[in-house]
Amino acid sequence: MDDKLVKDVMVPLDQCAVVDESASFLDAIRAMADSSGRLTPGRPPYQSVLVVDSRRRVLGKIGQLALLRALEPKYNLLSDLDTVPGAGVNEQFISSIMEHYEFFQDRLSEMCRAAMNIPVTGIMHPIEESVDQDDPLAAAIHKLIVWEALSVPVSSGNDIVGLLRLGDLFSELAATVIELAEGQQ
Fold it and tell me: Residue 65 contacts by C-beta under 8 Å, 6 or more apart in sequence?
């Protein structure tokens, strides 16, 4: 593992779940399902979709949590949901917000139906950080921890060339730990 680089573990862009910037929520769900079906057996399923422009440049990423959040448009009423996890929020506070804003009051099937046509550009996270394909895995682990990300785009120069997924990185780590443990016996 010491010699491995990000490019040795990443999923190349041509194997990632990808949608065009004109795509919808439904298109993103379909792309994620279709791409997961093409994975090598044993690899974790896709948990995000990359959004590309007409020249196939990656503009943003949509993770499963962003797709869930898109089901309830009222989340847009809250200014910065990204700060909530670190703010010491408890169950009572979350319940009071749900009651006050009447989150998830509709039937889930109706919420899904309403979300199908939401443009992906309205729910994607623009690419603001990435790891370089030639970074050592230790540097990538550090960035995933600091960014609290399940995946991060991989760059080569100014281009996004793939996606480093936490599941793939963790599989590599687990295999290394087991190999080291067996070598000590």
Answer: none
Rg of the chain over CA atoms, in angstroms? 19
Token pair, residue 93, equals 């506070």
The alpha helices in 47-124, defined as continuous H runs, are: 64-70, 91-101, 108-115
The string of pLDDT tens digits covering residues 122-166 is 999 999 899 999 999 999 999 999 988 889 999 999 999 999 999
| Adjacency order of strands within the sheet including 125-126 | 18-20, 48-52, 58-63, 125-126
- Rounded CA separation 138/155 (Å): 16
Closest CA to 126 of 68, 51, 73: 51
Q: What pTM did the predictor assign? A: 0.78
Q: Which ranges in 56-165 belong to alpha helices (H)?
A: 64-70, 91-101, 108-115, 137-147
Class of domain 6-184: alpha beta
Q: What angle do CA 10, 15, 17 make, to 5 degrees?
A: 100
d(CA 22, CA 91): 37
Contact 23, 167 (CB under 8 A): no
